[in-house]
Structure formats: structure tokens, C-alpha cells
Amino acid sequence: MNIQFAPTDLPLSRRLQTASVLQWVFSFLGLAPSCIVLFFVLMFTRFWLVSVLYACWWFIDWETPSKGGNRVHFLSNLRVWDYMRDYFPVKLVKTVDLDPRQNYILGFHPHGILVAGAFTNFCTYATGFRKLFPGLDSFLLMLPLWFRAPFFRDYIMMAGLIPSDKESASYLLRRQGGGNAVVIAVGGAPEALDARPGAFTILLANKKGFIKLAMEHGAHLVPVFSFGENELFDQVENPRGTWIRLIQDKLQSFMGISLPLFHARGIFQYSYGIMPYRKPINTVVGRPIRVEKNEKPTVEELDALHQLYTEELSQLFEEHKGKYGVPEDQHLIFV
């Protein structure tokens, strides 16, 4: 395999961009297990008191993730996220205003491998979410598993991440006065197994939990499509029905997280590694779908709103795909 090395005379800004994305990739792939190991290792050193005190804090703070987390605005506004934004680059595209007196559920599509667009746009202020949608605070849902990792749970809560369970989302959507935007990567971990360049497969056909959640709280639904999300990594071929996909599906159902076999570029070379490609991400926020509060919706009502959401998402894609290099004959594939 021919290896294409990075030039040695790259400007400092480019190297800082790479460093910022490297720390983000490590945070998602290696920081959680590292924190777990650190917690237990400290128990057997002279610093054992750190783990004991943290365990006491953990007990006291146990319900914080399900009650809006503990966002630190200063950290979301750090310069490091500007470098990460410029690495791809990432752009947040507004189509209409969102009334800050309402609560919203933003359906993010597609999931991609590491949800880079969702994190950059809704967990940091690098792309201007608060300026584009004044009065709204965004909260990105993440697998509850990660909130059981000591130290790591505090880090992700400071970025505006909350567990992807009904209790956590409902707490925010119940808030009077509005101003909360709950962001859900609807396809979830299973959709990551279909994420590869040129893929437009959306897991939505049987995803109705977020629809019911919106109806129960009267939260308006907003489809969001992130053009370029699937272009960041290559993935080992794993068509449905193959032994690789069967193993991945079994692990996903057992562990709750998917294990896509992905690769892209390296730090000092462009041929192989787990650093994402420098591909533009354009995250388009669509028109809100007005939802009336209905605490006990019927199956027919759920199906009707789900169909409307699917149509709005498809229309959003069709209206904007030409701007971002998607072929005219390419359409979303809903499964």
C-alpha cells in the first residue's frame, strides 16, 4: 500500500485543526474506558481518596444527567472547537426561525460514524447555534451507557450531552416557557453500520418513539439533515445478511453500541487511520412541524405524524441536495 505522507510545511492552523479533531476522536473512542481504568487504579494507590470522594459525589449527583445535565458554557465556547469546525469544515444552515417560546425535538440524520456534525453544531458554539437560534439551548442525546463511566460522565455533561432515554428528554420538554432543543440522532447506533461515502440510507421506518415523545409534550418536530456526515469515514463492506453484519447486529443488540469497522486517514499521513477525512459537513435545520399536545396518541395519530415527518425530511433533502454535490437522481432510502 502506497502511503501518502502529509507535507512538513503545513501552517500551524492546519496542525491545530488536526490536533483538535484528534482529541475529539480520542474522547469518543478511548476516554471513557481510560476513565474507568483510572478510577479503579487510583483505588490501589496513595491517591485512593480521589476515587472514594468521587464515588460519594457520583452518588449525590446520580440523577443530574437525567435532569438537564450540567452544561458549562465556557467550555462549549473554547477556541479548540473553532479549530475542529475548520478541519472539515462544518457549517450550520438555518432555513427558518425557531420560536424560543417553544420546545423542540430536532431529528438529526444521518447518524454517521461518530456524529461529528451533531456534536460540533449542538454541543459547541463554534458554528453559531445560539446566534442563529437565539433563546434556544441545544441538548444532544447520547447512549446512557456512557453516563456510567466515572469522570467521563461529567465531561460529556459539561458539553450539553444527556442520556438518550425518555426520562431525560421529557425533563427538558416539560420545562415551561420553552427554549429547549433536544437533538436526537434518530437512526441511532444501528444506522452507523450503514454509514459510508455515498450512502443515504436512513433508519426511520420503525422509529416512532421520538414522534410519541413530541406528541406527549407538544414539542415541535424539526427535521435536520447533515450533508457530508457519511463522507468522513470508509467502512468495511458489511451488507445485511453477511456474517460480519450478523455479528455486528448481535453485538449491538447485546451491548447497545454498534461496532462499525471504519477507517479514514492518519495524523501524519493520508492513507490509513481513524482520523476523519477533511470533508465538508453542511447541517441543514428544516422547518418545524407544529405538534399539539396529546398525552395518549392513537396508533393512527402516531403513524400520521410519522409520515408527515418522513415527507418533510425527504423534502428538506431534495431542496438542498444540489447545493452540496448530491446527484439529482439520488434520493433518501428509508428502512
From TrEMBL:
Keywords: Acyltransferase, Endoplasmic reticulum, Lipid biosynthesis, Lipid metabolism, Membrane, Transferase, Transmembrane, Transmembrane helix. Belongs to the diacylglycerol acyltransferase family. GO terms for molecular function: 2-acylglycerol O-acyltransferase activity; diacylglycerol O-acyltransferase activity. One of its GO terms (cellular component) is endoplasmic reticulum membrane. This is Acyltransferase. GO terms for biological process: diacylglycerol biosynthetic process; triglyceride biosynthetic process. The keyword Transmembrane helix applies. The chain crosses the membrane at residues 21-49. The lineage of its organism: Eukaryota, Metazoa, Chordata, Craniata, Vertebrata.
